[in-house]
Amino acid sequence: MEILWFLIALGLLFGVLGPYLLRRRGGGGGIRQVAPGAPDAADPEAYGFVRQEDQDVRLPGSDDELLHVLDVVQATQDWRAASRLLAATGKEGEVRWQRVQAFAGAASLELQERPGVGGAWLRTWRAEAPKDAGGAAVHAEFLVQQAWRSSAAGTEDFRIILEEARKVTEEAALLAPGDPVPYITQLAVARGLGYSHEEFDQVWARVIDRAPQHMGAHLAALHYWCEKWHGSREEADHFATTAAARAPRGSLLAALPLFAVYEHVPDVVLVQDFFRTAVVSKAMDGALYAVHSARADDPMLAHVRHLLVWFLVRGERWAEAMHQLVKVDGHVGAVPWTLSGDPAAEFTVFRNLAVAGYEANGGNPATLPH
């Protein structure tokens, strides 16, 4: 275990582990560092994996239609293509929520890169089509992302932005009756503004009335119940395990306990083999079950796979990690990578460790099914 943590720390320090490829040590099944290009060096590209600099940090998985529209909007600064896409996206599933997040995130990042200028297409959208439900939903989510990106939680600026976001979520909800997205955004507002449990439950009731099995909504609610916000480890675990127990077969809600575990992983793990303990192993197995039983086109599937990679690598379950990696490589816009300043580099560290561990235990590109 010590060598694994050393390698992770080394990779994070330099931003990328790519040049430091790992391979088998003798016949012992361990992994060791070798020089780039050495005969024993493991090569992630041999598995068809995408180079670090080509990883797409905008989305957790592929949505070609969304990416095309995003490119058009950002190239032309014309909001109409985004409006048409959201108008054609059903309210009942997870896709609308992810697309709203993606448009809001794109505008927020533009503004960060070009203060006062970036994201002008969203401001124009709201000014020219104030009754457009999609525009209102994106605006509300944009404000939430701006609050966390530009202000420290608890500051006056943070509160002012979230108060504005709350007003826009209410407007968006009136423009799109039956759409859970404005209320899911309001869950983040409730967390940031410190709603009481009773006030939060009122918002949550509006969400589940509209989308009782919505995975994205459950993830947003889980944050509120975590110890670092307005709940506790026990309350978060209860929320996650209850949702998982009630989930129908094929629902990714069975993976929710793994997200609860992740939210409460200590900054410094003092327990030997923490990632092989019964609690962590049970949560991982639940998530693996959810992944195997879910629809192949479930839009939240990539989110679960990314978190599984993080846990499986740290638990040295190399082959299982590789099976998830072949499904998500190329898109890294998901927790846990997005919590890093360089999501592509963070993802690459774990991916390269998985390749090294896989090959150190007898795996190779020919033995990995895609």
pLDDT averaged residue by residue: 88
In which range does the helix fraction lie? 55-70%
> Low-confidence stretches at least 5 residues in length (pLDDT < 50)?
1-29, 33-40
SSE succession? HEEHHHHHHHHHHHHHHH
Gyration radius, rounded: 21 Å
The structural class is mainly alpha
Helix count, DSSP H or I runs of 4 or more residues: 16
Main beta sheet: 2 strands, antiparallel
- What is the approximate shape? globular
Explain how this protein is built.
There is one protein chain. The protein has 16 helices and 2 strands. It is mainly alpha-helical and 370 residues long. A two-stranded antiparallel sheet has the order 1-2. α10 runs parallel beside α12 (256-263) and α14 (301-314) runs antiparallel to α15 (318-328). The longest helix has 20 residues, at 156-175.
Architecture blueprint of SSEs:
Elements: H1 2-14, E1 22-25, E2 30-33, H2 64-76, H3 80-87, H4 95-113, H5 120-128, H6 133-150, H7 156-175, H8 181-193, H9 197-210, H10 215-225, H11 233-246, H12 256-263, H13 278-293, H14 301-314, H15 318-328, H16 343-360
Antiparallel strand pairs: 1-2
